Amino acid sequence: MRSFFTIRLTVTRSQDAVRIILVRGGVSLSNSNNMQNLSIAGRPAFARGPRRAPSLLSAGLLVSVGLTLSTLSSNGWAQAAPASDAAATLPAVKVSASKDATVAQADTVSAGALGSRKQVDTPFSTHVVTSDEAQDLFATTANDLFKYDPAVSISSDNALAENSMFNVRGMPIDTLNSVKVDGQSFPSWDTDLSLEPFEQVELLKGLSGFMYGFGSPGGIVNYVLKRPTDTPYRSFTLGYKSAGVFTEALDLGGRFGNDNRFGYRLNLVNEDGNTAEPNGHVRRQVASLALDFRITPDLTWTADAFYQKRKTNGTLFGLGIGAGGIPDASKIDIAGLTQPQNYYQTEMASFGTGLDYRLSENWHASLKYRFAKENRTNSDSFLYVTDTAGNYTNTLYAAMTRYFYQNVDAMVQGQFNTGSIKHDVVVGAGFQTQTSEYSNSTGWNMGYALGTGNLYNTTLLTNSEVSMGSDLYRQQRITQAAVYASDTVQFTSRLSALLGVRYTQYRQNVYDTTAAVTSQYSASPVTPTLALMFKTDPYSTLYTSYVESLEQGGAASNTNLNYPATYGPMRSKQYEIGFKTDHAKWGANVALFRVDQGYNYTNVSNYFVQNGTKRYTGVDASGWLALTNEWRVMGGVMWLDAKAVDVDDPNIDGKRVYGAPRFTVTGRIEYNPAYLRPLTLAFGGKYVGNQAVNAANSLFVPSYVTYDLSGRYETKIAGEDVTFRAGINNLLNRRYWTTAWGSFVSPSPTRTAVASATLLF
Fold first, then answer.
1. For 613, what's the count of Cα atoms within 13 Å in the CB-facing half-sphere?
2. φ/ψ (deg, to 5) at 344
3. In the predicted model, what is the mean pLDDT of the chain?
4. What is the fold, at CATH topology level, of the domain defined by 225-760?
5. According to CATH, what is the number of the domain 108-224?
6. The pairing of beta strand 152-156 with beta strand 343-358
7. Where are the domains of the chain?
8. Which of 208, 520, 727, 735 lies at a CB distance of 3.0 to 4.6 Å from 212, suitable for a disulfide?
């Protein structure tokens, strides 16, 4: 079945082109005189079926895809015509969209110093999840967004731990340098950004030195803020999560003023209730506002503000295993692991502003600034298991930490030709500061002893002497000044190359409690990026790429004997060969990669050291297929060989890298019955292989499999669109361990029932 709606375009003679943004499925364009036909295949995604008839596209279908025709101009207002030019009205254009068309994922991805690119045209591995897909996944953290990506393995979950974290291809995401908001650094140490204010979240796998500067080889997680909508948008969502967590979320957007030159987007969220975990409770408030002002047809000013506060009770820092091996997670008394004094709280605020200027048809410039702050308060326990019977000592760490970030970035992007060769160039500069404040208190340096307990029996432990360490001092300040340039050279319609380089002036100062500098590091590295791309067809790219990157050096934790030792930055290198394709009814991505990263770890004497190389070699493959109009499947697999090389310590050299599974498999199937199109059912699962807990490989967490079940039903109530969703995460209530930081483990979340209703009004 096909539905139709009509768009009438009025342009001046001086306008030789128009850009049309279409937002769903397989679309064909034709004028009423049938003089021109343009057909564009949509990009169906596994996770999302059509939400409503195409006649409602202007109200915002669930996944928006901008399709820019090669003969059409860039987006903008119609320019004023000369006095001699009379206005002309084009014939009505009829747009038809197949009812069963679906959209895979966001068409474009932000690539830092490369600007925005279509995913299929980038020589890197990427994964983008939109806000509507996030709702279908019942996602509350980035862990949930990327759980069906085979390259992603969970290292902790905020259901019980302080926050949710994950590894990409066995490498952890650097939460101080690799989390971005609209491409700019954002403090996210042990913090989960709420997803409601963001239009999409982008995962760039692997090294990103040229594109984003300093960051770990695990990749970049970029949160893209929701921006003002061209048409009024209003939604309200009521959510529930067992055992008694209720969420209310309001999302408003639109434009106003002369010629709709002013735009706004407002998101408000409140969440409160008891979680499914023993002793668990969560309270969360979020507010975000994005504004823009179209000063001229070519110049736009933007501003945004974001605030989030989240507190959870019943949290656990982790478990250290001193003897007896990893216990059976299914036999642990989870209720006995956390204590009444255990809680974790984060508070974040951010402000950003910028100018976007279209210099000409092919050139664009931008300038933006962002300030961000994070306050972190932890009062949670670290359990150290001392024997095979499961006895442990409980140490509570209670202290505050703070982080302040500032970013300024300027970029110019444009296209030009030299003969038959086309160039897409980007030049830019950036400056950022990062300041960390730590506590000099008993609660941070040594912690408070709560007593002893047993993993298999509930034990109430308290300590009346516990006090929050709030006497903060500036512990570290980092500055980065960078300039960069790149050129994507298109030799033919199929063959192109990317050449990019970034020069960074990096300075790191570490201070003691008296404000004296205890260590200092400065460097001026050059990080290149090289890639060769071949288009096998318009929707497919074969590529090979080489990337270098630097990341901040490691630092000993307060559980290491050499705390607070710090180390200088480490250089990493990545080689990747890949193929990606995105067709109307199927898509696939496969990458063969090798990453060499500097190694820092805790040795057998409990000293934190930086020595040798972690080498990751593997295959990362995923794909999706629309079997019929009713059935869609997706799946992925990653094989990984991660080992330590060139390490001086014989206890470490040649061993598996901690936190890196050898094998992961994901799968998901979606059913949208023809006899009941508003209903969509989904079932998914993930297998994660065993992982080393420490560098010496003396401990491993076992492999595990989890399953999820969900459904979505779309209807109208009183003429308004309403979507009901329900699901069960960890369907079989599998208990398992995750591991992080090369030293401890964390328990998994329990089975959780989720439900929501979203009203568009």
1. 13
2. -145, 130
3. 86
4. Maltoporin; Chain A (2.40.170)
5. 2.170.130.10
6. unpaired
7. 1-103, 108-224, 225-760
8. 208
